[in-house]
Amino acid sequence: MSDAPQLVHPEGWVLDWITRDRLARQLRRADPAVDGIVAPATELPAGASFRVHAERCALRPVDALEPLGSATTADATSVRGALLVRPGVRCTVEGDVVAAPGAHLLVDPGTHAHDPWQPPTALVDASPAARPPFPWRPVVAVVVCGPDPDPDRLDWARSMVNALLRRDVEGRLAVTAAPEGLHLTRPCLASPASLEALAPDVVVAADDAAREAAPGWCRRRSTVVVEVADDPLLGVELVSWRLGRAQGRLRARIGERVAPATVADLARRLSAGPQPEPPQPKPALRAVAEP
Amino acid sequence: MSTATPVTVVVPVYRGLDDVRACLASLRRHAAGCATDHDVLLIDDASPEPGMAALLDGLAGGATGGPTVRVLHNAQNLGFAGTVNRGFAESDGDVVVLNADTVVTAGWLDRLAATAATATDVATVTPLTNAGSICTVPRAVIATFDLDGDQPRIDDCAAHVAAESLNLRPAVITGVGFCLYVTRAALDDVGPFDAETFAAGYGEEVDFCLRAGARGWRHLVDDATFVFHRQGGSFGAARDERRATSAALLHQRYPTFGAENAAERARDPLAVPFAALELGLHRRRPDRPLVLHLLHNSPEELGGTETHLRTLVEALWQEFDVAVLHPVRGGFVLRITFEDRHGTRAEQELHLPGAPELDAPAGTGGPAGEEVLDEHAAEALRLALALEDVAAVHLQNLVGHSLAPLAVLADFPGPVVCSVRDLYLACPHHWLLYRNAEPCGIPEDRSLCARCLPEAKGLPVEYLETFRDTVTRWLDTVDHWVFSTRSAADYFARVYDVPEERVQLIPHGATIPLGPRDGDADLPDTDAVLTGPLRLAFVGRGWAKKGLGVVNHLVADLATMDEDAVDVEVHHFGELREAAHPDLVLHGTYDNRDLPGLLHRAGMHVVLLPGPYAETFGHVMTEALVAGLPVIGAGYGALGERIRAEAVGWTIEPTDADGVRDLVVNLARCRPEVRRATRQARRVALRTVAETADRYAALYRAPAPAGREPTWEATT
User: Closest chain A residue to B612 measured between Cα atoms?
Assistant: First the structure.
């Protein structure tokens, strides 16, 4: 038997490294009477990825451990979430519930376990909490906003967002009808308010309506637009940003069959500028006295 | 060369028997191959030396293959000027006034006459010499040919001058009297020497030249001819006194002469011809190609570009000689470092003429007078190319050169490489900061530029149009555009169509020692960041362009927070240019090589680079990574590109001070994220400049591409 703590969670669930790291630290610092630490399955803010949600959770103080309560589903030793237990603690997984009979468990609200198969809830505007608290990955919002969106295009968007997440890009899904299937993010409503909240680096306009509307929804001056072209075999076609030739925020067109890794590279490149919109000076920063 | 009327070589003689013999011998020796019809007129100015008259009389007449020699004896001493005037009167054509203590050399008269014939407004021509005021060859040449010694190698020196001369024939305000070719047309117009005022000798030729100059005549130097001058043969010790007397007379007669003479010395019209002679003393190995780098500064300076260049030169030394052309006050300096034929490393530094009145190097002048195509810079580059056989040109930084090199190099047969280290070519306000505050992103809307440029650079927006039109016109001059990051190339592509095949992405190597890296026991434990205050290092010049305003805002906000909840210290490393918040911990200036050690000793965890401008690479970021520290920097430009590519920090909108504060607070509250980035920073592969050198070498070796049509529309 291993003497390392054991991480237990329902099959297919995902935990960001920051949650895993925090669970391990919490268990190390916990009273020996504590048998395990729970990462609860909390609801993502609209538009957020499981990773960004885990990061935001991790901002909570480490001493904010709670007894099993709101996160429990059955009793004080089972939970809908993930569980890191000390060696030798017996655990079971049934459906999306993890149990450790007789064990003393504490919940860490600073962690998050994600059920990617959870059916999407009602679409609402994205929350500002969907923005990364530690920004370095580009944020790419894939937008499908036609009134009667093509299910295949919706599924393509869902799949692309998930694939981008796996390639260190913060994919976001902004749609008018949430597709079923695996989700590493919580879809949000395709709307100007969502794009303002997400403040993406790149908007992928994935249908005709998005191609028309999305550029006007962007408020951040550096946000650029990539169109999904009608030609599915198209790879990546850059749109010149040369003065006198640039087409507003539009920077590239991609085909449906383009590899997610290529889109990730494109997003990283386009995120580095130059900004498509001119500067809008902000109020002056406060002055300080002479040293 | 032949002239319609024979040239008369007038040799006034007064004492100096041996010198006269040597002078006459040289005239005869080199008359054989002379194509210029000439005769020699020896005028004995009542020399008191016994035997002088007899010697001169014995020389009269013609000799086989030699010139006709006439001898005149002044009944009484007329002085140098009076004697020369007699010579003028006794001749019909051009005249060479030749001191008796000179030794002429092969081809001398043909070249002087040819120079005189280059234009109809030429009054005088003076050759180079070993002792002749502005026409005196450099000390190194004098020493090499032992011209000060008992056995001067006069013919060798003359051959060297003839071989290495660029035949520039520069104009001067006065000729020099030791050997002065005077055209008859000028004599007829200006009249003879002023023998009355300058009876004692010295100054008469200056007076003549100034009078001629006032009437529109020019005086040239034949920089391919050397005439030896023993000097002082006739006046001996009285020379200094006579010179002083003459100078006083000249300054009295020509009040502006002193200033004009000083200006000429500063402009140094002989600088380039002399540089050629010096270069010729040490020949480079013909099998080693020479790469000419254009730099904005002396290569000794501590800036990133200069350091990079020094390191690159050393890395490529096995294959390439190197020349650096850079502006200085009043001109340009060309420094050539090469391996000579004996395998010895040698260096020569030459001052090329510029504009001595300039307050700043050409092209940096700022206000409305800034030249897009600075003629001084163009001329300096042309001269540099004429001086040496250059295999490749690398434009390291054009500040101070203007855009002139792009035009000059349009026909350069070798590869032209341009490292885009900043976005100066996209906008003279290369920070690309709208009104020095907001990153402009190179806007379409030119009205923004019309507001920004006058404030930031004192330039009208029309200058920007001209500037960009000029770069566009000469864009094809550059065969290889080198960018250190993709984003720099993409910013450049906002303004110019550079064919993708001409874009080279070569990340800068580190210019400081890489030091301990991941796994080295000397590095602090990454777990150290989990506890205690989070220490941020704001590195670089402390001013708004580097984000001092954001830092002040951050420090002020942190001061209002509960230290138990958010424990953050902000330190500054570098020169402080503007007012800083009192809570900012100041460490002062530093040497880049010491920065990693300084950061470690001060216990820094994160390097904060909140400058709002779009970096093209970010040397400080490299230094942070050498120190194994993650970075906070702008999400756009090179910092954003590098942070995202390597996951070695976090991106910000530098103008969003609240956003910067929120990120710092988040990092303080979640130290594992800081540790993650720290570990990543230690793992990231860094390369030295030497490790990138082969990429540059390949560009220097490559022929200039034939196709120059823009094919920008590329795919990733």
Answer: A279
Query: Would you give the distance in Å from CA A94 to the centre of its chain?
Result: 26
Q: Which residues of B touch A21 (CB under 8 A)?
A: 672
Nearest C-alpha of chain B: how many angstroms from A140? 14
Q: Which two tokens stand for residue B67?
A: 């010139």
Say which amino acid occupies B73.
Answer: H
Query: A246 touching B, CB under 8 A?
Result: yes
Distances (CA, A) of A161 to A183, A204, A249, A264, B418: 8, 10, 21, 10, 40
Residue B474, pLDDT above cutoff 70: yes
Q: What is the pLDDT of residue B295?
A: 95
Q: By the CB < 8 Å criterion, does A243 face chain B?
A: yes
Residue B385's contacts (CB-CB under 8 Å, 6 or more residues apart) are B292, B408, B412
Burial label, B692 (beta-carbon count in 10 A; 0-12, 13-18, 19+): buried
Cβ–Cβ gap B493/A242 under 8 Å = yes
In this complex, which of A134, A273, A278 lies closest to B491 when CB atoms are compared?
A: A273
On whether any CB of chain B is under 8 Å from the CB of A283, the answer is: no
DSSP string spanning B372-391? SS-HHHHHHHHHHHHHS--S
Query: What DSSP line would sit under A29-76, residue for residue?
Result: HS-TT--EEEEE-PPPPTT-BHHHHHHHHTTS-TT--EES-TT-SSST
How far A136 CA sits from the closest chain B CA (Å)? 5
Cα atoms in the Cβ-side hemisphere of radius 13 Å centred on A265? 12
DSSP state of B248: H
* Cβ within 8 Å, pair A269-B490: yes
Residue to mutate among B490, B546, B643, with most A CBs inside 10 A, is: B490
Per DSSP, A280 falls in state: -
Q: What are phi and psi of B547, to 5 degrees?
A: 95, 20
Q: Is B491 within 8 Å of A269 when comparing Cβ atoms?
A: no
Residue A28 contacts B where some CB pair is shorter than 8 Å: no
Which pTM value belongs to this model? 0.78
For helices B637-646 and B619-626, the axis angle rounded to 10 degrees is 30
- Using the Cβ of A70 and the Cβ atoms of chain B, whether some distance falls under 8 Å is answered with no
Residue B320 is encoded by which pair of tokens?
Answer: 């390439």
Residue A288 is nearest to which of B552, B635, B650, comparing CB atoms?
Answer: B552
Q: Does A1 score more than 80 pLDDT?
A: no
Q: What are phi and psi of B424, to 5 degrees?
A: -55, -40
CA–CA gap between residue B538 and residue B581 (Å, rounded): 13
Q: Which residues of B are less than 8 Å from A243 in CB distance? A: 442, 444, 494-495
Please give, rounded to a whole number of angstroms, the shortest distance from the CA of A39 to a CA of chain B.
Answer: 17
Residues of A whose CB is below 8 A from B445: 278
Q: Tens of pLDDT along B335-352? A: 999 998 778 898 888 887
Domain architecture of chain B: domains with CATH: 7-274 (3.90.550.10), 283-425+475-505 (3.40.50.2000), 526-686 (3.40.50.2000)
Is there a contact between B387 and B338 (Cβ–Cβ < 8 Å)?
A: no
Q: With beta carbons less than 8 A apart as the criterion, state whether B710 and B498 touch.
A: yes
Test A238 with B580 for CB contact under 8 angstroms: no
Structural domains of chain A sorted by starting position, each given as residue range(s) with its CATH number in brackets:
6-107 (no CATH), 128-271 (3.40.50)
- The pLDDT tens digits for A147-193 are 999 999 999 999 999 999 999 999 999 999 999 999 999 999 999 99
SS (H, E, C) B53-83: HHHHHHHCECCCCCCEEEEEECCCCCHHHHH
A221: chain B residues, CB-CB within 8 Å: 441
Q: Are A96 and A80 in contact (CB under 8 A)?
A: yes
**ipTM of the shown complex:** 0.95
- Radius of gyration over alpha carbons of chain B, in Å? 34
